[in-house]
Amino acid sequence: MPLHESCGVFGIYAPGEDVARLTYFALYALQHRGQESSGIASSDGRSIRLHADMGLVAQVFDEEILGRLAGSIAIGHNRYSTTGSSRIINAQPIVMSSALGEVALGHNGNLTNAAYLRAELEGQGCVFRTSSDSEVIAHLLASAPGKTPVANIRFAMTRLQGAYSLVIMTKDKLLGVRDPLGVRPLCLGTLNGNWVIASESCALDQLGMEVSREIMPGEIVLIDESGFHSFPPANPAAERAFCIFEYIYFSRPDSTIGGRRLYPARLAMGAGLSREHPVDADLVIGVPDSATAAAVGYSQASGIPFGEGLLKSRYVGRTFIQPDQRLRDVGVRLKFNPIPEVLSGRSVVVVDDSIVRGTTTPRIVALLRKAGAREVHLRICAPPIRHPCIFGIDMATRRELIAATKSIPEIRQWIGADSLGYLSIDGLVEAVGLPRENFCLACFTGDYPVPVQLEMDKFVL
């Protein structure tokens, strides 16, 4: 079953447009990236207004609130908690005063040196009001010695380690920033000659915007009344560490990242699974909706018919994204319902995107057996996850990762499947169709692209 995902960010510079409403619709399209809180900050050229609250986009905003967010620039944020607890005080965007005036910031990612930087900034007199590492970035920007926003961002980037895709707004400028490793996606688009920034291209597509390109690792982009400006890194990082889980699960299948549409990549993952782990079965089903495309790919490559054996309630949020295991468990029971007429007496291949803790997958297997499935063969698009993520995916501590403590035969027995097959790392990279060196594969290999504190709880067995 899936794991926590990264946040969604959006920014728009569009004088004469209803930027708050456009941001609202963009956040709707990015809702899959975070369901705990949502926020929009806007500027009319004189001051920044902010509204953020806990809940889904539709719960946080209404007509009256959007009407108060008038302006020509806006940034928005959907959050799930990585660093920092799930509380209203940690909702974003963050707005802070600086020597250059008010600054608003939305952050997708996770800093690996946040604790060190926070202690240093507190020693310099900075007062923190949240437990989020995003506020560390905001304080660095606010206290930087530069005389322009780009200079301050450049300064902050020399101190930051880890993953950060940022949308930043001053009263008259919109900026986008991507960390030098390019861990999280961030793309550029246009609307009627105006510029927009989004975590994923699907948000631009749905709003009828033109997708221009991705913001490059280490690049800063700035949009103001004089137009669009790009500031590439002076010394580009030799490494890339794009999170391959964006292809497996996080991003929507209609998004394009690295020039590769995700839907055919997921079809290819399913096809790869059918080659690596064939089985004689009657039916292929996917765990909806995240593994549907891969299940179709498995079916097409194997010749085993595809069917819908599990139905998903459209009104239950993503169970993994709840920050409490008890809430996850309740959500799983509410989320899926098997169809006995499809499953009864059949040998079924079940395709899913990942197994993390191994707590929800046994429940799905049990549901299928109760509905009459004769055999349940589980096929997983992600290789075994044996190491925790340091870049903003709160998948588990290492001692909670089932593949860190059990062999594949032991996992199969634990989840109650008749067989279990994981896509290999080579098979996954081949399915994505981009060079292996582009990706962070640390959750599979333990080979982290930046130094980590191995004594941290996340890394203790």
Tell me about this structure.
With 461 residues, the protein is α+β, with helices and mostly antiparallel strands. Helix content is 30%, strand content 25%. The protein folds into two domains: 8-238, Glutamine Phosphoribosylpyrophosphate, subunit 1, domain 1, CATH 3.60.20; 260-459, Rossmann fold (3-Layer(aba) Sandwich). The strands form six sheets. The protein has a seven-stranded antiparallel β-sheet with strand order 3-2-4-1-10-9-11. The longest helix is centred in the middle third of the chain and has 15 residues, at 262-276. Residues 1-5, 318-323 and 453-461 have low confidence and may be disordered.
List the helices and strands and how they pair.
Blueprint: E1 8-13, H1 19-29, E2 37-43, E3 48-54, H2 57-60, H3 63-67, E4 73-79, E5 94-98, E6 101-111, H4 114-123, H5 133-143, H6 149-159, E7 162-169, E8 174-178, E9 187-191, E10 194-198, H7 201-206, E11 210-214, E12 220-224, E13 227-231, E14 242-243, H8 245-250, E15 256-257, E16 260-261, H9 262-276, E17 283-286, H10 292-302, E18 310-312, H11 325-335, E19 336-338, H12 340-343, E20 347-352, H13 361-370, E21 375-380, H14 402-405, H15 408-415, E22 419-422, H16 425-432, E23 439-440, H17 442-445
Parallel strand pairs: 14-23, 17-20, 20-21, 21-22
Antiparallel strand pairs: 1-4, 1-10, 2-3, 2-4, 5-6, 6-7, 7-8, 8-12, 9-10, 9-11, 12-13, 15-16, 18-19
Helix pairs in contact: 4-5, 5-6, 9-10, 9-16
